[in-house]
Design brief:
single chain, Serine Threonine Protein Phosphatase 5, Tetratricopeptide repeat, 2 domains, three-stranded antiparallel beta sheet
């Protein structure tokens, strides 16, 4: 019995240590930390495919809003904010980080993939309402779009064009200069430039299908 207690205690300690490293990685990715700091977290044992839980209602302070899914605090947050918690990954947070413009976010993303990060999981676990590819289309972020397209994550072209148009309409409502960081853009947003950059990833048939869908929607 004593051995069992010692084993369980040791196992619990290891789990807690792993959780702390995972949270450090999640917060480094979300907080715009450098590639070197992200590498340091991974070298200390953080899992590049760990699942984090982000609570939008908890404010911008990372220590209060972003946790490893194994953290006991998560159950409380999900119960308190059932509609405002979302599962995320380190790779997704590299793109979503509110200070991403201060670093080479593509370099950070490539490093995480090199270390085994799941690209499909990241694309779907964006904090925002769109997948990361469609978010890239909305903000006309060519580098972000190409990163995922190069990895084989390819939504339909009609979805992409809708997201592009959504971004143009959204930013068109504002009279302010919409520069949000070095990685984003001043208005007017270059929708045609973005579309030209991603079209080589699609076949002639896919382009034709997207064109027909757009024509039908314009008639409605």
């Amino acid at each position: 019995m004593k051995k069992l207690i010692l084993f369980l205690t040791a196992s619990s300690g290891l789990l807690w240590a792993g959780m702390e490293e995972n949270e450090a990685l999640l917060r480094a990715c979300r907080g715009g930390e450098s590639l070197e700091q992200i590498q340091e977290c991974v070298n200390k044992g953080a899992d590049v495919n760990c699942t984090g839980v982000y609570c939008g209602a908890c404010g911008s302070q990372l220590e209060l809003s972003l946790f490893d899914s194994e953290n006991p605090r998560v159950s409380e947050l999900k119960e308190q904010y059932p509609n405002d918690t979302k599962e995320v990954t380190p790779l997704a947070l590299v793109f979503d980080g509110y200070l991403s413009g201060q670093r080479d976010y593509i370099q950070c993303a490539e490093y995480l993939v090199e270390m085994g990060a799941n690209v499909q999981k990241a694309n779907e676990s964006n904090i925002g309402p769109l997948t990361l590819v469609l978010e890239a289309a909305f903000y006309h972020d060519i580098k972000q779009a190409k990163f995922f397209l190069d990895k084989g994550i390819k939504p339909s072209l009609s979805q992409v064009t809708q997201a592009i148009q959504g971004g143009v309409k959204y930013y068109g409502k504002s009279t302010e200069d919409n520069t949000r960081s070095e990685r984003e853009y001043t208005k007017p947003l270059p929708g045609e430039e973005f579309l030209s950059a991603i079209l080589p990833y699609y076949t002639d048939r896919e382009v034709l299908e997207a064109t027909l869908i757009m024509q039908l929607k314009q008639k409605d």
